[in-house]
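Incident review: delayed structure delivery

Summary: a single-chain prediction request sat in the queue longer than the usual turnaround. Root cause was a stuck worker, restarted by the on-call engineer. No data loss occurred. The affected request and its eventual output are reproduced below so the record is complete for anyone auditing the incident later.

Affected input:
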Amino acid sequence: QGKSCGKGAALAAIQKLLILCANPWGSSYIGDDDQVAYSFPKLTETLSILEKIRPLGEKAIVFTDFKAVQRMLQSAIRNKFGLWPDIINGELNTNRQAVIDVFSEKQGFNVIILGHQVAGVGLNITAANHVIHYTRPWNPAKETQATDRTHRIGQSKPVHIYYPIITDDRFKTVEERLDELIRSKEDLARDVLRPSSEQKVQIEDLLECLDEA
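Output delivered after worker restart:
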């Protein structure tokens, strides 16, 4: 359908592939304590990263724009670490900095989940020095802006950035292709002054992923 029903169908197919990488259980499943449905590669790797951060007593931000994935991550982190990470996305319009302050003031290991779209509202999150881009926005500038939430005056620790990406030996996955495109757009933006619209990944750039499905 994605290859034969026009640009809109292709975009929907690409989005479904991205969500499949992030949460193969689908939007209807957010997790139960007595199930092992969290054992898929992207989440397993993310929880492994957090497991290494915990004994350091440091804090992490996990970025994803998919709200169902945000809730899944929240549940998985609760089950794994016994803490309930707050979510800040377009649904929370007030007191965002208050939520950040509570996150920042808690001693030791902590996690917060953010949508990339809220990264441009002036939030200061220097208490976190680990940033996990669980899913990627199509605009490299938006991703950089999200990462920069931790690069503010007052940051005293090295900042570590993680990009867990689904790969496959048989073909290039949509996440691999998106990663390549984001990196190429970033390189182009550094080398040549171009309009911001040209810095975004376009649906046409990702359509070849459907040919490999």
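Verification: The two ends are 12 Å apart (CA to CA).
Action items: add queue-age alerting; document worker restart procedure.
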